[in-house]
Amino acid sequence: MTAVLALGHYSEGDHAALTKDLGATIVTSNADLAAMAKDERDQVKALAFMGHAPLGGDEMDLFPNLGVIANYGVGYDAIDVAAADARGIKVTNTPDVLNDDVADLAVAMLFAQGREMIQASEWVTSGNWGEKGPYRLNRKISGGTAGIVGLGRIGRAIADRLAAFKMDIHYTSRSEKDTPGWTYHADPVSLASAVDYLVVALVGGSETENTVSKEVLAALGDRGIVINISRGSTIDEAALLDALENRTIAGAGLDVFLNEPRIDPRFLALDNVVLQPHQGSATVETRQMMGQLQRDNVSAHLAGKALLTPVN
Ligand code: 8YV
Questions:
Q1: Assigned CATH for 99-275
Q2: Structure pTM?
């Protein structure tokens, strides 16, 4: 056993680097932590964490010498940071390196759903194009009105892309930003009533739970398309499913859900959605940078140096 324990389903490259560069022991589930022998747990100084299963004080207490939890991802809502604070444990994340990929996927889903690309592709592959004629007309996206829920680093990257499509940008955020020409809304209902596309780029966690509520979805209306690349928890999922089934909104592009990866089967019966398996940051290039940043934070801690991207 070594000073570094890694938890998660790592790519081959990350797996190799964790073991080679850091001599890490790798386990895949929270249950594996409690199964470790006490003398092994006592040696752990750093935990490289990947995944979305909750990591709380009980797990932290298994490792009396744990000094850092280095999260693989920008969102660290799975980690109880208050519990880490109380134990003097630092938490780090992997911000910025994934902004482009997550923003790209948000825009791709907006276009895929808006232009009905999945349905239109099925029109081709089913032979309908040859037998029945052209696919039905869909909708113009460029020049539309988009609302970004949460104008942080990723929200800004999405807004910049949509602005290039001549879209009118509205947003809601903790505070008004210096974004000339973009319209700030103090609350998400006001935002939703002003736009056709609602793109959710919030942090996860209890403070943003169900920000996109039944009322927000009603305000968005039947031309509305919801895009979510944040966390499933930011949307009232039952209300979203009702709205999609009853077509009180037009559609959705979703990369995140409650209870991933076993998502609500109601999603699978819908024909007005584009569904992705939480893959916003999942490119070879970006995952390499995320893995490197995670390992650099672990190395910094072991060397007694300042952490690169601390969150507490
Ligand atoms: C995950 C993410 O970290 O960065 C985030 O917040 O949700 C993703 O990049 C990744 O899927 C590994 O769990």
A1: 3.40.50.720
A2: 0.97
